[in-house]
Amino acid sequence: MLDRGILAAKLGELEDRVARVREHAPASPTALRTDRDAQDLVAFNPMLAVQTCSDVAAHVIAAEGWIVARTLREGFERLHQQGVLSKETGDALAGAVGLRDVVAHGYAGVDVARLHHAATAGLAHLDAFGAEVAAWLRARP
């Protein structure tokens, strides 16, 4: 059964993570490269935001009885297939899993330019995820 309370809490957490990134992201990759504290905030919060989106996807998929996603990427693809997410948002979040994995597992360090891009332009995709899931929830009885 879909638990709207859980989803509301997760979407609120997503908004908070995105706001923290906006608050701490320097104006340029060069500025980010020289500020280790900002690097931590700008890496950690998007990683957690993508994880939060994945948690939302897993909850919706399970509650709706859809075919279980075997990977985080597949979870976002499934939400698109079922009409919860637009193709653009589903693809963007599926792609964001790669950066999440790099940050979470420390694979050979993080490319600061890629991190800066995620912390600026990439935030729109996280905003879209929250808005699209919220709209899908409002449309449900």
The structure class reads: mainly alpha
Total number of strands: 0
* Assembly annotation: single chain
* CATH fold group: Four Helix Bundle (Hemerythrin (Met), subunit A)
Approximate strand percentage: under 5%
Through-space gap between termini? 13 Å
**Helix percentage:** over 70%
* Overall structural domain count: 1
* Biggest sheet layout: none
What value does the Rg take, in angstroms?
Answer: 15 Å
Low-confidence stretches: none
Look at the structure and name the CATH superfamily: bsu32300-like
Mean pLDDT, all residues: 91
Order of helices and strands: HHHHHHH
Written account of the structure:
The chain contains 7 helices and no strands. With 141 residues, it is mostly helical. The chain has a single domain, classed as bsu32300-like (Four Helix Bundle (Hemerythrin (Met), subunit A), Up-down Bundle). It is elongated. The model has no long low-confidence stretch (mean pLDDT 91).
Features:
7 helices, Four Helix Bundle (Hemerythrin (Met), subunit A), 141 residues, mainly alpha
Question: Short summary of the structure?
Answer:
77% of the residues lie in helices and 0% in strands. It has 141 residues and is mostly helical. The radius of gyration is 15 Å and the shape is elongated.
